Each structure stands twice: as structure tokens, then as C-alpha cells.
Structures
1.
Amino acid sequence: RVDGRGRHRGGAARFGARLFSGSLFRPDQIRLNRAAAAPLGDRLKLRYRLVFFRVDSTLADIQGIDFLAGGNEEVVRLTEAAMNGEIALDEVYGKRLEIIRPGLADIERLAGEYQKRMLPDAERVVARLRDAGAIIHLVTAGIEQAVRPLAESLGIRDAALHAVRLNFNADGNYADYDRRSFLTRSGGKAV
């Protein structure tokens, strides 16, 4: 769940919040909490087996929707209103995509940007947690096709990638998004 300031509370983030001291969402700043993960030589003993990471501004220093929008003021306004709790995410999600109408080529560029802007310690942190027996999931309202290469580079299985799939027509133009996805609704990451 996200409060009015865009901070995550409860839900999937709860697991990580107990696992780490410091910021759950900035791998370059993570320090393992002694109560949750005790060092065993080079190996960690984890208190929680499931670890959930957000992607945008967490594992990668980018907001995918902002990259696709290219500074479009209406998209920026809608995003800020949703992050401040002024408008429900389910009211904003589709509107932003209809304004941007990203094609497959745009999504490929975004995928490359996620890779380039992955935080320096993201791979190390994910590998260390995995070596300790954690099952890593990525949970994002970002675009599945753009986030998948990042997940693959981190060794995250498809079944552990929770993102929103876009649909394209035969020409590679935007058609729609998966409207059944709980990630496009307010509180969807807490489900």
C-alpha cells in the first residue's frame, strides 16, 4: 500500500521491511537487519523466505511511465495526482497509456533504459538473498515486456515477475493493457 507521500506500507513490502533496515527499495543502501538476517560466514540466515522488490526507482533509477511520456505535462500531472492520493490509480493508469500510446519500439527502448539504469548493487543484493535461500519476486505496475529483460538479468523467473502486460496490434502499435491486472488499481501491490 502507498500512503499519500508515495511511501509503501503493508502488503508485499511488509516482508522486505522486516528483512532490511534502511531502505527496502534502494539496493545500494540496504543493510541487512541482524534480527532478520544473521551472517553465517559468507552466507546469510534469513528470517523470511519471500522477498518482494519494486522495480521503478527501486532496482532501477527510472520511472518507466515518465520515460515513455517524454515530459508530457498531462502525464506528469496525472502521475503526481495518483502518487499524492488525489486520484485513484485505476482512474489514471489507462489515461496515461492512451495519451502516450507506446509502440513496441518504445517498449524496447524502455527495456534498454531499465538495464542501463539498474542500481549498482541490485545484482549483488538479489544474488546474496537468493544464495541465502530467499525467493525473489518483482512487483510493479510497470510494463511487463519492458521489465522482463531486467528480471532475466537478475535471474528472476517469469512466474516471479508481476507486472502489467500491454497488448499491441499487428503493426506494433499500442492497443490496450491487461485491464484484469490488480497492479493497475489502487492498493493492487498489497493483494
Note: The beta strands are 20-21, 31-32, 37-40, 43-46, 50-53, 135-143, 161-164, 166-168, 174-177.
2.
Amino acid sequence: TDYLNGCVKVVHPQDMVYSASFSSVSQIVPGEDYYTRDSYPGDDYSGHGTHVSGIIGASVNDNGIAGAAFGAQIMPVRVMYSIYDDLGNITGTGSLSDIVDGIDYAVEQGADIINLSLGSAQSMGAQSDLLFLQAVQDAVNQGVLVLAAAGNDSINIDDYGSVPSSFSETMTVSSVSNTGSFSSFSSFGES
């Protein structure tokens, strides 16, 4: 586990998983589903969670990609669910209480890293932002590294107060192109 800096259990919120088999991921450990309130988070329709989990933990098997942390265990925790927008596109939604519960669950189960590929492009309101921040701070205080997606809104996350990506306690990740420059759609900021 040297390449993981001692971390072996990665939590990814399976925000939008469709018939996930997880066969290409190194090792799956039990997770939780805060949308359907069962222990099987693999019953949704977008595939975003499965895709990100593959980027994190895909096995080295000469069949496709190797994950960035290919020896890690993945704990799927679904806190979001899919809906169709007015144009018929699948998008995700969820509740702050489910996100907080998912973070708390991951910490209780011994997660080393929590990946939050979710968020709001702007503040959710002072009280909601504080609840979200407290959950992230509690995780960090337990020694968990919390990663957050910057988002796909082409905005400065600090100017808009995006959560959780603008929290100083998170390590926020933006998208880059094949040349290493920011992707045209990627949000960004100093946070």
C-alpha cells in the first residue's frame, strides 16, 4: 500500500449507479444506500458513481484502465439519486441530510478517503452550508482526507461559495484537458 500512502479504504458516494457489477474494481467493501435505505447502492440510472469508482479503484488486469488507487477498497455509499431535467437529461439530486449521514457512515466504517463528486455551484444557505461543513470537519478531525469535485459550471468556486468544493477542509479537484489546461467546463478557485 505504499502507493496509497497507507490509505486502503476509499469511499465514493455512489450518487448515480446503474446495475453496477463493480467487477473491474479491486475490492468492494459493504456500503450503504441513503436513497432507498438499503445496503445495496447499485440501483440507479446514470452510472456516474460507477465511472468515478473505476477511475479510483479499477484493477490492474490488462483490460482497460488501472485505477489511480488500484489497490484500494471501494465503499459505495449512495447519497444522491437520478432525475430527468426539463430537457430529458439525467441529472442528480439529493438531500443534505443524506449527504451528512453518508459522510458519518463512512467515517464510522473506517474510511481513509471520502470522495464527494457532488455539490452545489453556490451556497445552499448559511445553516445548510454549516451543517455540510461540520460533517466534513468531523471527518477531517478523524483523519479522513475529503476530496471534492470543483464542478462543471465554469465558475470560480470561491466567488460563488460552492459547497463543498470551497471548504478549506476539502482537497478540491478540477477537470483538465489532455494538454493539462483547465477543461472549458471545469470550475476552479483558490480553495
Note: The longest strand covers residues 73-78.
3.
Amino acid sequence: IFAINARGEIVNWNIASQDLTGYLSEEIVNDNSILYKLFPDKPLVRELFSIQHSEKDIRKEFRMTELLCKNGEKKNISLQISHRKKAIIEDLHTWVIAFDETEQFQLTEKLIKAKERFEMISNATNDAIWEWNFEQNTVWWGEGISHLFGHLKANQITTFDWWSDKIHPNDRERVVKKLRDSAARGEKTWR
């Protein structure tokens, strides 16, 4: 949490802010250029200044904003800004709460890349690639389901029963039991 006065100076810089950025309170407080050091996104800083001089009460959120730490490390944060036209504490109109979302951002990026790779592999093969979600009892089908069997369009989700109903009645009970047993044992492949 930090607070900005009417001159654009940070006048309150708590321990969590120090831990997040590496800047001590003494390095930050009353330096009206520090916002430009912390936030490389200049339009964001200009908007902060604009909010801070507003004659209206404003609450605003900025998602996935880049923060530049003292050691040069870049972090992805979200900011919640609360500006009051009548200061709660003299000359402190604008309060900012920062949330470090760097880890979440990195995990999301990894997940997006993994999904892109999976989709590329799924589209490149002539196999019927599928994924069974046990908890929801749904099955996702890749491109091969339509190419090989003429069912569905690619990237469609069905129920497990939809798939098992396609198995020949003489084989259905045996195949489904074998698959369920394999899944219950945590086996990675099934044939």
C-alpha cells in the first residue's frame, strides 16, 4: 500500500511495498519522479496523476501492470486505486494497493504455450486424440475424431457415455471396464 499527495509524491510506503520493490521508504517518500522509475508504462503514470488531481471520487483498477524493482527485476502487478476528493488524512487523496501477480502471470503464459503446443500436435497427427475429465465426465476430442470416424467437429466436448455408446455392444462392457480400471490405477496409457 502506498499513498500519493497532491504534488505526485509518495508519502506513505509500507513494508509490503518495500518487500515488493526493494526500495526503502527513505528512497521513495517525497520523490515526485519515483513513479516513473517504478512504472515504465508512462501512460499509466500520467493517468495516476490525472486521477490524483480529480475533483471526483474515483476507484480504478489496473491489471497486469509492469513494475520495475530496484534490482531491475520486472514484476506483473495489479493496482487498485482509491481517490477521494476530500482527503481522509490531510493532503492524502490517493491510495494505491498493489498485488503481485508475477507468478500467476508466468503460470498463465506457460499454460498458454503448452496449450498451443498441444493443439499444434493434435492438428498435425491423424490420430484420434482425446482427453477424459473424470470429475466432470467429459471428453475433449481433437481433429482426428472427425477425420477418422466422421464424428463431430474438432475440439468438441462430449460426455464419456457419448464415446462408450459408439463401441460395439459386444465389446462395450469389457472395453469400458478395462479403461476405467486403467484410469483408477493411474496408468498413463491404455490400449
Note: The mean pLDDT is 86.
